[in-house]
Each structure stands twice: as C-alpha cells, then as structure tokens.
Amino acid sequence: MDVQAALTRAHHEEWARVVAGLTRRFGDLDIAEEAAAEAFATAVRRWPAEGVPPNPGAWLTTTAARKAIDRIRRENKRDDKHREAQMVYDGPPETVGAIDDDRLRLIFTCCHPALAMQARVALTLRMVGGLTVPEIARAFLVRETAMEQRITRAKAKIKAARVPYRVPSAEDLPARVSGVLAVLFLVFNEGYLATGPGTDPLRPGLTAEAIRLARLIRALMPDDGEAAGLLALMLLTEARGTARVSADGELVPLAEQDRGAWDASLIAEGHRLVRGRLAAAAAGTAPGRYQILAAINAVHTSARDVRDTDWTQVLALYDQLVRLDSSPIIALNRAVAVAELDGPQVALAAVDRLGDTLSGYHAYHATRADLLRRLGRSRQARAAYDKAIDLAGNTAETAYLTRRRDQPH
C-alpha cells in the first residue's frame, strides 16, 4: 500500500472522528486538537517504517488518547480528571455509531451561534476539516498569527460560555442546522470564486473541503432536505469548475462555457439528489433555499446547449425562491431569467429597482451593463462596466468585464 496515500486518506477520513472522540472524552477542544495533531505526526514518522496498521482509525484514536493523557499528566490536572482519562483509555473501543454522533456534536459546537461567522468558519475548517492554520489563513487572506488568534479565541469562548457539546434539541435543530450549512456554503463560495483581489480566482482546495464536509453532514443527517440540497448545489456548481476560467485567466460565464468539459459524474450525482428532493416535495415536504438553488442548477446542467435552457422552469424556481428569500441578490439573479423570457427592457426595470441596496455590488453593475448593451445603449453600458470593474473581486472577473466593455457592439 502507498503509505503517503494511506496517510492522506486517513487524515481525510479520521481527523474529525479522532478530534470529536477526544472532545467528548476530555471536554477540551485544545487537548483534542493537540493530541490529534500529535497522533497524525506520529503516523507520518512511523508508518513508512512500520507499515500502515490494519485499522488506521483505531491506531490513530488510541495514539491520540495516549497523547491526551500524557498532556493531562504534564499539566498536573486533578487526580479525578487523570483517573477519568486513564479509565477512558483502558475502556472498550467506541462503536462507529457513537463516533458519528461525536462528529455531529463537534460540528454543532464549532458552528455555535455564540461565535461570529468568521470564527465558525475557521474553527470548523480546523477542528472538523483538519486544515492547518496556515492553510486556513491563506484561504481567507489573513496573517497566520491572526488566524491562530481567531481560532484560539473561538475555543476559549466555547469553554468560557460552557457551550454544550451535543446535538441541539429537536426544537432548536432546524435553526442550528441552517447555521452549519451557512458555514459550509461560505467556505464553498470562497473557493468557487475568491473574493480577494490579486489572488487565484478559484480555490479548488476549499471547494473540495466544503464538499467533503457537506457529504459528512449528509451522511450524518440523511433525512435533512437542506443538507441534501446544499450538497447537490455544490456538486452541480463544482462540475463546471474546469470550464469557468479560460487559459488566459478570464472568467467564462455559463452561457459561453464548454459544456463538454463539465464533470458528468458530479452532474449525475447532483441530479440524483435533486430528484430525491423533488420526490419529497411531491409528497408534501416543501423545499428549502438550497434545494431550490440546486434545482435551478439542475435545469442549467441538463441543457446540452445554452439555447436549450428551460428558462420558464428557471423563472418558476426563482419565483418559489423569492418567497423564501426576498434578498436583493436573489431578485438580481431572477432578473437574468426574466431577460431571457420577457426581454432586456423588462429585466432592466427590475434591476434598476435594486440600485439603492446593491450599488456596491459588482454583479449588479455587470448585469445592468449586459442588459444595457443588449438594448444598444452603449455609452451607459460602458459606464456600468467601468463601475463593475472597479468593484470586481478578482482578476478573472476583471479580465472578463474589461473584454466585454471593450468589445465592439
């Protein structure tokens, strides 16, 4: 067996299990994180020489538990805590079901609403995803020391506020799940189209991590429709990843993408999830925001050519979404479908009504520019492109908008 591949796989599959189990046992995120990291570092040293153990997860769990006990001893914890740790170490192995429950508890702890959203994202990527602090810092364009402090403060707040390490009660669960999914969606969006200027426009490492965590949530909560919807949305979006930026580093909009370059397996998986949610809706379960967004993406990815797009269905889905989420960004995206069905003049009127709230959003100006261009209002279109370029978040968007602005009409 390839030892490096085994280490990588173990890190992906076992990090959250190990951290979650240690958190339950010792009640301390710091101890859990440090002991897990030491266990994986030990594996990196020993597995190449000794071979990959038959059960890597059990090996890592046992090693991490020893590391945690050693730390407790070094820090001269109270005798009862020491005995508790020793008893856990000497006790029977955990069942897979219990470990899965621990991971779910860990996710809800890291995404607790007592923490700011940025702290939730950082803590989730570290404790659940296993990303290193430098990796998280690079992804979100902050200094390593600042990210380390953010994670440290988040763990301290959890301890000080005595945030319970548990799955929320039935009445609190829907709101708390939505918070977890919002964290994962934020991680995915940063990878899908990075917001920082002068950086790589796509961060495939982040989108892959978001999808991996979304799969985990889906597996742990198979009956949650929005968890399935978010995973489907991510898969159908990620499927287009290789076609979204040209060889020259320019963003390629959906209508111009090479659909033959889309990932057929991700699309098929995403469509299966969407069909499953449509079946649930037919049975009387109303779809949520992520499920509707996934259905919209399913319509787009079902069309072999942009001219085959069922815009009537897209608009109907946006009308359904607006009833759940009346945000101006949803209204802006709906206007794109309106333009295809009712023409750019009708769509422009809808977009202009959003100007007071979206004047600082580059996509608002880019959408206006496209509609004005289609109406032959070249001077106004150019001004709108200029505004979009000023506000654009990365080099790929800037390159695309600049080309569109400078193209002859």
Oligomer: single chain
Number of strands: 0
Q: Strand portion, in percent?
A: under 5%
Q: What is the SS-derived class?
A: mainly alpha
Low-confidence runs of at least 5 consecutive residues: 85-97
What overall form do the CA principal axes indicate?
A: elongated
- Describe the main β-sheet briefly: none
- Helical proportion, percent range: over 70%
What order do the helices and strands follow? HHHHHHHHHHHHHHHHHHHH
The average pLDDT value, as a whole number, equals: 88
Number of helices: 20
Please, how many domains?
4
- Cα(first) to Cα(last) distance is 59 Å
Organism: Actinomadura litoris
Domain DUF6596: 176-275
Family: Belongs to the sigma-70 factor family. ECF subfamily.
Pfam families: DUF6596, Sigma70_r2, Sigma70_r4_2
